[in-house]
């Protein structure tokens, strides 16, 4: 008897993955691919959209040939801030421009002055000024610089919805992509911002459908449904939202450490926006307040510096246990300097230096996470990603949040799993499992003044 599964495409900037999940949300097949970047007409690196398109079809042909599986549904999650501009036949008109591409200062200046100034506009859209990372600004740039191209655009689709279109033939927009620092959505009015209508941008955006929508496939094969796709940050939050009813903060750690609070309704303040906070819209349509910290990047850079100075291998720091004696030593040495400016010869050992680095990072993490707690009644913090496996980080975090229950959370492929869970009712005959997430509790031994 064939095993019912869902196929999930999880597209990151570097790795493009396909997973098959069974009805208990166990991964029963996976495939990974990487593509060389190409360049756009200005010579700036960008995604190879054609390679990505062909890879989707190749991967599906492969899994459809596997007689042990019955594919009941397909869904997609990808990185955000990336638009595919298609003509009336659904063919891309441009490269998939990178959100890292510098944005013209004159166009940006003119835009914000036209629509109330940066302070007012960023408050309304819950989007800090981020240039091309505000994906709506990419479309505005085309209108200004290449009006003839703008006229040819039937729809501008965020990448997850373009991938869904390739299989379903249906053109839709999704709120998790639109509601993520795009400059398109007015959070105060819960609709598109007025500029989207005034500039004719709304006509270039496909109809919005609920994030759990499923449509029939045009791709040959069995009778299966196709989800309309999700923004990856929103998808990664879904396993937590379906598993826990009590309010929580999720700190998702990687290159960026992003703190999510789905349990506050207070709008972003000017101070929060200036402190790198923003709002997402999660798959059920409600706002999620978030704050960002570049801590994973800092950790990577400084670990290399410590290893070099003390003549150690960087791999050593993946499994260093928390030791109270070092904590007491480095706590006495603490000052307000950034770790990167410290002379490492002031430390007696690399272990002492590493404890100091982690204290420095957790100090910043406390400030970042507190920005979005904001009296919202939350008493649990879940940490997933790289730092959830770091004993020093987790022990320090429990100490700086003594009033919270702090857990390291782990699961296989949170983003892909969340993408499958979003359309659970459309493909899965079983109830949701209660063991999606594995938790490890870190008790605060005492309050730590940091």
TrEMBL record:
Pfam families: FGGY_C_2, FGGY_N
Keywords: Kinase, Transferase
Entry GO MF terms: kinase activity
UniProt KW Transferase keyword: yes
Superkingdom of origin organism: Bacteria
Domain Carbohydrate kinase FGGY N-terminal residue range list: 6-220
Domain Carbohydrate kinase FGGY C-terminal: 245-308
GO process annotations (BP): carbohydrate metabolic process
InterPro entries associated with the record: ATPase_NBD, FGGY_C_2, FGGY_Carb_Kinase, FGGY_N
Recorded family membership: Belongs to the FGGY kinase family.
Protein name: Sugar (Pentulose or hexulose) kinase
Organism: Albibacterium bauzanense
Taxonomy of the source species: Bacteria, Pseudomonadati, Bacteroidota, Sphingobacteriia, Sphingobacteriales
